[in-house]
Amino acid sequence: MNDIRNKIWYFLVDSKTNEILSSLIVVKYQKWDLYTNIFLVVTTSSSVAAWTIWNVYPTLWALIIGLSQVITLIKPYFLFPKYIKVFNEKSIRWQHLSLELEEIWFELNQALIDEKALSSKFFELKKKSLTFDNVPEDIIFFSHDKLQTIAEKKSEISLTKI
Question: Burial of 68 by CB count in 10 Å (0-12 exposed, 13-18 middle, 19+ buried)?
Answer without folding.
Answer: middle
